[in-house]
Amino acid sequence: MTTPHASGASTPNTGARPHSTISFKDRAHDRLNDAKVQRAMRNFNLAGARARGVLDLENLEDIRTSAAAIRDRSLAMLDVWLERFEREATRRGVTVHWAESHDDINRITVEIAKANGVKKVIKSKSMVSEESHLNAAIEAAGMKVVETDLGEYIVQLAGETPSHIIAPAIHKNRDDVADLFHEHHKTPRNNDPAVLTMEARKFLREHFLSADMGITGGNFLIAETGSLVLVTNEGNGRMTTTMPRIHVAITGIEKVLGTMEDLSCILRLLTRSATGQSISNYITVNTGPKQAGDSDGPEQMHVIIVDAGRARLLGTDMQEALRCIRCGACMNHCPVYQNIGGHAYGWVYPGPIGSVLTPNYIGLEKALDLPHAATLCNQCGVVCPVKIPLPELMRKLREKQTERGLRPWQERTGLRLWSWLAQRPSLYGLATRVAARLGKSVGGAERTIHRLPGKGWTEGRDMPAPQGKTFRELYAERNRK
Amino acid sequence: MFLKVGLFVTCLVDLMRPRIGFAALKLLESAGCEVVVPEAQTCCGQPGYNSGDRPAAQALALKVLREFDDCDYVVSPSGSCGGMIRAHYVELLAELPQHADAARRLAAKTYELTDFLVNVAKLEVVPGRFPGTITYHDSCSGLRELGVKTQPRALLAKVPGLELKEMATPEYCCGFGGTFSVKYGEISSRIAERKCEDITTTGADAVVLGDLGCMLNIEGRLRRRGDSHTRVYHVAEVLAGVEDTDGNR
Predict the structure, then answer these.
(1) Residues 194-253 (A) with a CB less than 8 A from some CB of B
(2) Phi then psi dihedrals of residue B161, to 5 deg
(3) Interface confidence (ipTM) of the complex
(4) CB neighbours of A69 closer than 8 A, spacing ≥ 6?
(5) What residue of A is the nearest CA neighbor of B228?
(6) pLDDT of A208-221, one tens digit each?
(7) Chain B residue with minimum CA distance to A428
């Protein structure tokens, strides 16, 4: 693992390909003007599902407090738990690999595949593999790779990336899927979701039966038993871990939990927070490869434990972000995400958690907009199952940007000027009296301003005009009478 | 009762809607408070704080600390500015330990207006009357930083003639977010649009809320989408029955 060093001090060297600066504003603009994305986002309501899903928990807040404490405990003893996991998993026949960088993930995976003559790889969902562009690396090494989560499969056929961490194709509608399947499966076009699902099942079945290697993510690692936990709904996860000869799981260092008991608490919140389910269709605990006497399972099981920027957050004011259990509730409840979708955020993780993780993982200066791309309404913070104070973390990133002089000079000057003026009550009083009168006069008889300089406000709204005199002057007038 | 209450007017009310300040004053006085209005007050520092300019925010926080030091309570007709003082000043001034006690004292005695009227001043009778239906928007900071939810509704229930029709998602952000509304105007307007749809679906005569930032945002979007009839009021205006002398469009 890397040596922890100061957070935000420099561009993280995660070994990943150089990321270009994310032009969030333009990307958001495109999605706001894409009728299809807008229709999809209007129908998107996992927040409603969560609201119904948590109703049966009488002590939701207590469970959130416990879950946050469990995650904090994991992070406080991360080295201890990870070494314990390695020991226990190794004892049960698992090969544990440590990936310090994104390049390491790809290198290790391809090496395992090549050493075993792998021709076809199937994948269950893994967001960490999105960080390293693993599919491209596997293909570049001459192997075929097929995503088997239905949403991921759709996104792969479209040549896109997931727009949500648990609902990757949420930006697509049934007609998009019908077109994709018609084109790639060479089947008659049909846009009935049931028919499309059966078609995907049929095509994926052939891949499950013919693949040599299965790659999954890992929702959690359990230190005391050396187990890998997968939380899935479609059943593809179990096919991926049992049918091919080789199973490779890829997950971040922060995903380790001490005990099965820790897991039982976290699971109560994970599925409810994500989709409103009291439990997902499959909770799979993989402890080692196929043993003598087992009827199925892979001959080899590998776990790749990934740092790629995570360890650097330990012991800093950003550590709470590592509590994340990837339920997606923060984005599901975010008024910004709900309007622009996930692709606008420009990297692997969208929504509030993405606005915190992306600048930390790829560099503060490469994601300048992200920490600012939120109203700080704190809807994310109050639904987060592990109580990550997302608005506070975004605000801290904003401070780091200012400290490093990364904000535009107009913004910095404006804020300084405002603060300077507001510390000088007489001058401030004069300025506001002028502004109130000017605003009233521009507003005219309608008492509405239709255009303001900079157009940020009046592009989509009017500005109600000021009354014309300030409170301070009216109050002084009243007291003189 | 004779509680000495400092009124923190807020910079937006001072500049844009002084009548909200006077409405707050009237309500506090009718609750039996002795109200002082420090005349040199300006801004709580939130724009700097939320934009990452800590020193700019700290300078203004210290100014507020000085100005309201001798009040029993500080009351603001804003969950946002009230929340800034109550929920963030202690953290904001963390690296200035000499002010830590003062910051904690100020935070503990600072209230959003309706919260104060219900839970501290225990106002029984409100001066206002309102013939018509309203819907109430829960502003984010008041709701999630200060727990302001039932207080405005309890007070509005005392207003003769007023009928409350809740919208589907009253706790959904209006998209204002301070400087966010200007920096990301396009996204902000879209969020406001969803809020406006929810408001107009209720068919209420007016939307009432407790923060001027959200008011300007919601009213601005309503007018832009061609709605000239849905009124937008601050909860203090409705409770105080402040005359709508210059036409609150």
Answers:
(1) none
(2) 90, -20
(3) 0.95
(4) none
(5) A446
(6) 999 999 999 999 99
(7) B42
